[in-house]
Amino acid sequence: MADRVWETPETCYMEKLSALAHREMLEAQGFAVTEDVADIPTALIGEAGEGGPVIAFLGEYDALAGLSQKAGLSHHEPIVAGANGHGCGHNLLGSASLLAATALKDWLEETGTPGRVRYYGCPAEEGGAAKAFMVRAGAFEDVDIAISWHPSNFAGVQRETSLANCRIDFSFTGRAAHAAAVPELGRSALDAVELMNVGVNYMREHMPSDCRIHYAVLDAGGISPNVVQAYAKVRYVVRAPELPGLLSLIERVKKVAEGAALMTETKVESTILAGVSNLIVNTPLMDVMQDVWDSIGPPPFDEEDRIFAEKIRATLTPEDISASWSQERLEERDVPLADFILPAHSENRQMGGSTDVGDVSWVVPTVQAYGATLAVGTQLHTWQVVAQGKSPLAHKGMISAAKAMAATGLAAIESEQLREAAWADLKRRRKGQVYTSPIPPGAKPPVAAMTVK
Known about the structure:
single chain, globular
C-alpha cells in the first residue's frame, strides 16, 4: 500500500486515490469504515473491536507539489517535471499507522480482550490542518490514547513540541487603469501586496525570536506591466510556540495589511484557511514508547541498504548531514543509516515546523515515534526523500515504526494506570487552558481554496 500511495502523489485535500487505497485496505482487514469525516471527502476512520478503551492511530497520505522524482535513483530525475511527489514520506506514514492498527486489532480478536482500535486517515497535513477540523468536529471525543509517527533519519521517540500556525489569504482590490496614459486613476493591488510584505519584514525585528512568518504571492494581478493591477493575493503562514501568542501575532499582521491598503487606497479582505495548535508531548506515553523502541532496536538494514544510502548521501551537502545530527543534539558519526535508537532526554525542545497532530494532542494524550526510513542527512521536502520512498530501507523503517506504535498501543490497552497517568500529564501541561480551535467558527475545510498553490 505504501508503494501504491507513492505512485499517486496527491496534495492537500485532493488525495482521492490515496484515501481509496486506505479504505480498501481497511475493509480487507475487517475494519468498519466511515468516510467524509468532518465534511472532508478524503478523510476517513476505520474501527474494529468492542468495549474497553479506544486507541487511535493517526495516518497521513498527502504529498507535496513540485517534488516528482523517480524511485531508486541517486540523482535528480523527475517522473514528470513540476508534478507532485511524496517528499515528506507520507506514503509510508499512513501505511505504518494502518499496519499498527491492524496488528493491535488482530491481538484483540485473538485474545478476546475488550478494546477498540481506530485508524484515522488524515489528509492535508501539509498546510491544510485536516486534523484540526476533525478535532473541531468531535472525531476524537471518546479516544483514550492517540499514537502516530513520522519518517526520519533516526528511529525513536519524538519528544519535541511544535509551533502553532495559521494560514491566511490577504486579497487586495484596487482599480485598473492605463499605467502610462492615466496612472493617477489606478490603485494598484500589487503595490499593496508589496507594501504589506515590506511592512511584515520590518515587523520581524519586533516579534518574539521563536516566531516565524512566511508568505507566497498567489496572484500578482496579471502579466501586463502597462496595466495597473486591480487585484492581487498573498498567502501568509504565521507561527508561534503557543496558541495565545499566535493569535496576537495574527492581529499584528492584519494591521500591516490594513496599513498597506490605506497607503494604496485599496481594499483588503483576509480569509483564514487553516490553523493548527502547538504540540503537547506526554511523558508517561513517551517513557513507554522508549522502552518499546529499546527492546525492538533499529531496523534490520543490510549491506544493500547501506550502499544505496551512501549514494543518496553523496548528493547531500556536509551542512545537510550535520543538521540532521545537530537537530537531535547528537555527536556526528560517519554512518549512512541510523544503527541505534534515539536516547531519551528531558529537555524542552521545539521543532521549527508545525503539525495538525498538535490539535489532537490538546484533547487526547498523544505520543509519536520517529522511524528511520532515510539515509542520515536527508532533509524532508526534498527529491531525495521521494527517491527513497519505495526502497527496501524505507520499508524496513516503516515496519519497525509500526511495531513500536502497536506495542505502545498494546501497553495502553492493558494498563489503566498508564492511561490515567497520560491524562494527568496532559492536564498538567495544559495549565488550566481549555482547547480553543485556531480555526474560526463556521470556517469549512478549504477543499477548493487549497488547490491554489
